[in-house]
Amino acid sequence: MILPIVAYGDTVLKKKAKEIDKDYPKLDALLENMYETMYGAFGVGLAAPQIGLAIRIFLVDTEPFSDDEDLSEEDREQMKNFKKTFINAKILEEDGDEWAFNEGCLSIPDVREDVFRQPKIKIQYQDENFETHVEEYEGLIARVIQHEYDHIEGVLFTDKLSSFKKRLIKGKLTNISKGKINIDYKMRFPAMSKKR
After folding, report:
1. Residues designated as active site
2. 69 neighbors 63 (Cβ within 8 angstroms)
3. Which residues lie closer than 8 Å to 145 by C-beta, 6 or more apart?
4. Where are the domains of the chain?
5. Is 129 exposed, middle or buried (0-12, 13-18, 19+ CB in 10 A)?
6. Cβ partners under 8 Å of residue 171, min gap 6
7. pTM of the predicted structure, to 2 decimals
8. pLDDT of the chain along its 196 residues, tens only?
9. At the top level of CATH, which class does the domain 5-195 belong to?
């Protein structure tokens, strides 16, 4: 089932998400719905806060990047086969010189900006079977993971922009929070939530 994606301005996007355990109700159905929602919006990642749940879950599937002509053959090959569910994730280390990449977010449609992040991470997480893993990633996969991880920490990519850039996009962000935007996937806007 495709769920509405929470738009910029909703308080759930600014909350630090809580850990869950294997008894979380209907977890399999939730994960299935999250993947369906992400694919329905043509995303490469989706975090639980983006569907209104302040819990520490996010998914990544970088397959769409495997067609990007701007990436090296090696990067494209890596992107093709990377699909994972991260539960109760914790980034243990970030390393290397920060690099810029143009990021966007399903909760902030039509806004893309260069964000600086470190290229290497070490992350601990549980998979959908609650088995614990500690893994290292770098490059674009690390960046997608960092972006989704920020969501469960209550951080948006726009929080990482300079105050000048934030001023430039302020009007767009206001319009998104009011639902004054054309998008081709289901969204839930803060202004509409308050009316209920």
Report:
1. 148
2. no
3. 45, 60, 86, 121, 123, 137
4. 5-195
5. exposed
6. none
7. 0.93
8. 999 999 999 999 999 999 999 999 999 999 999 999 999 999 999 999 999 999 999 999 998 877 777 777 877 788 788 999 999 999 999 999 999 999 999 999 999 999 999 999 999 999 999 999 999 999 899 999 999 999 999 999 999 999 999 999 999 999 999 999 999 999 999 865 544 3
9. alpha beta
